[in-house]
């Protein structure tokens, strides 16, 4: 038995084994096309890039060292020397746990050491061949398809990668407007036409959603947006904060346009940069007026967890997506899920999204997701809130039926 099952009790394991049989939808990734991954020269440190780098950084590793160790090929012994002191500080975190589970599964080592860093590097290079994505996502994770962010629209990986596009955001200066919307933008109608074209193009090219970052809504009108646009176009030295009437108005219009094009609004909430402006509650004024617009609320708003749950509780058009959550903290994910199952109908939660750039790590995160979901479901069974059969039904709906129904996926 693998080390990650050791702490589960019998009922939790029984539920987990049932969840492992399911073919599932992966509700959020950041995967580059497989061809791009194969052109890279990964080594053992690649497994500690992406989210692990946040813990390495806050442990004290500087950004230049981080970039050299994690994102570029180089001398393995030299990299290890620079990596080890910071790795020792963060090797117990949830981000690191996903890396360790991944490393054990695919490259045969539970943790990285001076002695195995070369062999892990060799194995990851040897496995970096055509078919890697299918071996990981389809064969090891039983993923039917992954909703992906930041990939090119044409990269569909035979229908297994479903792309989303980033909303046009941060219209804060004349330069931003020209860069994002083209240099023919003289009026608000021009701006709206360019945005409409962008969203329409995403739909034509089979995107399934538009990815937004949550934003504060201060009630900007068309007139406010027009005045802000004129102001910005009048002086190229002007730079407004993201929270400005033009940006707000255009983001709200894009959410409507996404809906009119039958695209889901994939909404990042919480944790990232200045997460205060990414609080889920900021969206409330929009949701109250637009109850037909489908919103897939990412990350349960961490740290604004109850604000996110509340939106799921109250509004029929909002779903709560557990993507990234088990990596941030399995304790938070456990508690959020425990509370949500008590509060929400069974069609409201999406159980998994790897949220990864490095494909193998999706597996590590999925193991943690299944472990947490099993623990929560087992708790509900023990407390006699759910029968085991009903618990498994809810588990299946979270991992398969709910995203399928909301997005209209066809298997
Ligand atoms: Zn993400």
Question: Could you list some keywords that capture this structure?
Answer:
2 domains; binds zinc ion; TIM Barrel; eight-stranded parallel β-sheet; 52% helix; 18 helices; alpha/beta
Low-confidence stretches: none
Which structural category fits the helices and strands?
alpha/beta
Q: How do the SSEs run, as a string of H and E?
A: HEHHHHHHHEEHHEHHEHEHEHHEHH
CATH arch. level architecture of the largest domain: Alpha-Beta Barrel
Q: How many domains?
A: 2
Q: Quick one: biggest sheet?
A: 8 strands, parallel
Query: Any idea what the radius of gyration is?
Result: 22 Å
Mean pLDDT: 96
Query: In what order do the strands lie side by side in the largest sheet?
Result: 1-2-3-4-5-6-7-8
Give the overall form: globular
The counted number of beta strands is 8
The span between the termini is 32 Å
Bound molecules: zinc ion
Tally of separate helices = 18
Level of helix content? 40-55%
Q: CATH superfamily assignment of the largest domain?
A: Metal-dependent hydrolases
Identify the CATH class of the largest domain.
Alpha Beta
Strand fraction: 5-15%
CATH topology of the largest domain: TIM Barrel
What features would you describe in this structure?
Helix 1 crosses helix 17 and helix 17 packs across helix 18. An 8-stranded parallel sheet has the order 1-2-3-4-5-6-7-8, sandwiched between helices. It has 411 residues and is of the alpha/beta class. The protein has 2 domains: 87 residues; 276 residues, Alpha-Beta Barrel (TIM Barrel), CATH 3.20.20. It contains 18 helices and 8 strands. The site of zinc ion (ZN) has 4 residues, from loops.
